[in-house]
Design brief:
Largest interface: A-B, 42 and 46 residues
Number of helices of chain A: 11
Shape of chain A: globular
Number of strands of chain B: 10
Order of helices and strands of chain A: HHHHHHEEEEEEEEHEEHHHH
Low-confidence stretches of chain A: none
Distance between the termini of chain B: 24 Å
Strand content of chain A: 15-25%
Oligomer: heterodimer
Helix content of chain B: 40-55%
Chain lengths: 375, 409
């Protein structure tokens, strides 16, 4: 047994730490929070140059074919920012979906462009009847000669603002089950609108008779859902690692604040009530960390990772949100001053809570994996 | 025992009177912004006008004595008034007046007859708006650790220092402010309260950028500010409750702020959310999901307990019953259950609760604001930790004498 990072992973960790401390320090992230479109000006180019856009893509398709644990180490560091943006959506999630669902020529057409960072993919799956299951997909694809015309609204789409291409889950007329299309974000009839509020990176994507060529239909008609499920299950632990990074940062912030802030003539870390909040945070952090990293190890070593993945997503989503809550208890007033930076995490913990299925979705699926469901 | 707010012919008649009053006096063009930061100056002025008409009836501060512009109303009548206003989305006062809400009961206990004559009627009639200035950069939970000084110089106190997380949008006439009047004095014996006119030279107000601003109860404040005092000369007769007696005066102030009087119009958003989950769109309702229903039931139970704690405190305060830990208990519960409920909403309804988008944000963005507000509300009027300390002291655990609740008239 060895639960430490290997040399490659330590190098990844170091370069990601430098990046978060440099290009994505608190001031940069606050600026990005006020102007999300600013992401593409510089940060994305740097990420591509560092090779991060190709890490989860096999060498044969222009990537570096790193292990999922390698990728997760990077995302844990990005989570400490939290660095927003489409790296996960494009270079991990959509890349994996193409690997699972697309034919060879489609993979060759798009994966190298994702790996180089030239194209940015986002998954447009969820709709008004919100959910991460096949029956939530209602968007219509109407056959028109060899093409398809797509009409409908996707909402709470992550990172759509940055996307050059969407992978759109839809239902073809007369075909049971879900199909998948690549849609150019600049195609006529596509409209993207950022949603405002206590969230980061979530958008509405409207498709109004958007033409998709036959070649842009990914995989066999009506056969996309299984591939989508396999792909999401395989990348969920990477998303969890991002949340682990978030937990780690709110833990560090809370510990530092409890060491520095004095009230009643002593540092507040001496008060048991304050200690209790921080103990909650460290317990959430470690629960998220070890459930996540075991799931990653199983993925990389070819073991069945389903149960561990469902556990990790249930734990990490809940942990990040609750760790932020307790960090606010420790910080009180200063924690809600936006320029302090804690609220970036609070907002991110809520924004990602439902991404790729909320804890209740994964708990439900764990019931099946554990064979608890009768019949 | 009777939990009903209206039960006698006299009270039904009062409700009819309130409704008739509202029909006559409520400004027609009143708009409600979900985030109080979005309330315009014109809308604020409409609320001030409406406050003055309430004040003329003694209904702006209905529990205060008539001789100072209050209404001397019974607990039941005050509850009716709150209830009728909350139906139209207003609290009492119908604008942020935390300094008035906290100082009026405090001046009633600690002020001289002259102070009462001078300061209470303008508050109760709605002629002035008052902020409360307590928190400082180095004094949050540790209120007694404030650094802002007020040094006597002839017939004025010269005030220097900084307050933060205070006030509202659109300014104030007065600030009810705790200061250090004896910098060399013993802790807890060096504080005083000043009613500071905000038009004095040397006062600078700087807005803060916060996640949300609620949490003190009553009407939302809009922005919170940092307030700087630079040699501000405050007339000495604006010191209330005696020089260096401020800690004792603060116990009354904090009793009110910590929920000792109960608040009845709280948390309509929770019941509206349950309503929302029952609504059917395209044949689908959120409550169709058994897991969502189970969480909704928990949420409802949670909200009921909070409501009943508030109701109990209201009854205790307005019937002059002895109180001990109840104010802090309600405040603690409101904070923790508010946060928990906000997270249940996220679980139940999905990411729509995070947006105030016109198309996708439920209840015109009210739920999104509640998500932010539930986090922000953890600290104003004392953190959950401080509320726990107060409860423990008042119950009398840990070998202490039972601490008494702050005096209210």
């Amino acid at each position: 047994m060895d639960l430490s990072l290997n040399d490659t992973q330590q190098l990844i960790q170091d370069s990601a730490r430098d990046f978060v401390r440099g290009a994505c320090d608190r001031d940069a992230l606050l600026k990005l929070d006020r102007n999300p479109a600013g992401m593409m000006d510089g940060i994305w180019r740097q990420m591509s140059e560092l090779g991060w856009t190709g890490m989860a893509i096999p060498e044969g398709y222009g990537g570096t074919g790193n292990s999922m644990t390698d990728v997760a180490v990077l995302f844990e560091e990005l989570g400490t920012g939290p660095v927003p943006g489409p790296l996960f959506s494009s270079a991990v999630l959509c890349a994996r979906i193409l690997l699972e669902a697309a034919n060879e020529s489609t993979k060759r057409a798009w994966l190298p462009k994702i790996a180089s960072g030239d194209r940015v993919f986002a998954l447009a799956l969820t709709e008004a009847q919100y959910g991460w299951s096949a029956d939530s997909v209602r968007l219509k694809a109407k056959k028109d000669g060899k093409d398809f015309l797509l009409t409908g609204t996707k909402v709470f789409v992550y990172d759509a603002l940055y996307a050059s291409d969407f992978l759109v889950a839809a239902r073809i007329d007369g075909v049971a089950d879900v199909s998948l299309f690549r849609v150019d974000a600049k195609a006529a009839g596509v409209a993207v609108r950022t949603l405002d509020g206590f969230l980061t990176g979530l958008c509405e994507v409207t498709l109004e008779g958007v033409r998709a060529a036959g070649a842009d239909q990914i995989g066999e008609p009506g056969a996309a859902w299984k591939a989508l499920e396999r792909a999401t299950l395989a990348v969920v632990p990477v998303l969890c690692a991002y949340k682990v990074g978030g937990c780690r940062m709110v833990f560090d912030m809370s510990v530092n604040y409890a060491r520095e802030r004095t009230q009643f003539g002593q540092i507040i870390g001496r008060f048991q009530r304050v200690q209790d909040h921080i103990i909650h945070i460290v317990n959430y952090l470690d629960a998220a960390r070890w459930t996540t990293y075991e799931a990653l190890w199983k993925l990389d070593s070819g073991a069945d990772a389903a149960a561990s993945t469902h556990v990790a997503k249930s734990v990490a989503s809940e942990s990040y949100m609750r760790a932020c809550d307790f960090a606010h208890e420790v910080h009180a007033g200063i924690g809600v001053v936006r320029e302090y930076g804690l609220t970036l995490h609070t907002k991110m913990s809520r924004s990602l809570y439902h991404c790729l299925g909320a804890p209740k979705v994964h708990r439900k699926r764990l019931e099946s994996v554990l064979e608890l469901v009768p019949g | 025992m009777n939990f009903a707010i209206e039960d006698s012919p006299e009270q039904s008649a009062f409700r009819a009177e309130v409704r008739e009053f509202l029909a006559r006096n409520l400004p027609a063009n009143l708009e409600h912004s979900v985030d109080p930061c979005d309330m315009s100056y014109e809308q604020y002025q409409l609320r001030r006008d409406f406050g003055r008409s309430l004040g003329a009836q003694g209904w702006l501060y209905p529990s205060m004595p008539k001789e100072y512009g209050g209404g001397d109303l019974s607990a039941e009548k005050v509850a009716i008034l709150y209830d009728e206003l909350s139906r139209i989305g207003l609290a009492l006062p119908p604008y942020y007046d935390a300094g008035g809400r906290m100082s009026a009961p405090t001046i009633l206990v600690w002020g001289t007859p002259e102070h009462k004559e001078r300061f209470l009627p303008p508050i109760c009639r709605g002629e002035v708006r008052t902020w409360q200035l307590l928190t400082e950069p180095s004094a949050g939970s540790d209120l007694a650790g404030i650094k802002t000084t007020a040094i006597r110089d002839g017939d004025v106190y010269v005030v220097n220092g900084q307050k933060m997380f205070v006030g509202s949008s659109h300014g104030a006439d007065y600030s009810w402010t705790i200061v250090v009047t004896d910098p060399k004095g013993e802790r807890h014996k060096n504080l005083s309260w000043l009613m500071i006119p905000m038009d004095l030279p040397g006062i600078t107000v700087q807005p803060m950028d916060l996640l949300a601003t609620g949490g003190e109860g009553g009407s939302g404040s809009g922005v919170k500010n940092a307030v700087f005092f630079d040699n501000v000369r405050v007339p000495a007769d604006h010191l209330i409750g005696g020089e260096n007696n401020g800690w004792r005066v603060a116990t009354t102030h904090l009793e009110v702020e910590h929920g000792g009087t109960g608040r009845l119009s709280d948390r309509r958003v929770i019941y509206e959310f349950i309503e929302l989950c029952r609504e059917r769109h395209d044949g689908h309702a959120i409550a169709d999901d058994p897991a969502a229903r189970a969480e909704l039931v928990e949420l409802y139970i949670d909200a009921e307990i909070t409501r009943l704690f508030a109701l109990r405190n209201h009854w205790l305060a307005h019937t002059g019953q002895p109180r001990s830990y109840e104010g802090a208990q309600y405040s603690l519960r409101r904070k923790l259950s508010g946060l928990d409920i906000s997270e249940k909403m996220l679980r139940i309804a999905g990411p729509c609760v995070l947006t105030h988008d016109k198309r996708w944000g439920p209840l015109k963005g009210t739920i999104e604001y509640f998500q932010r507000d539930a986090i922000t509300a953890l600290h104003p009027g004392a953190t959950t930790d401080i509320q726990r300390v107060v409860i423990a002291r008042r119950i009398g655990i840990g070998g202490r004498e039972r601490e008494k609740a702050g005096a209210l008239k």
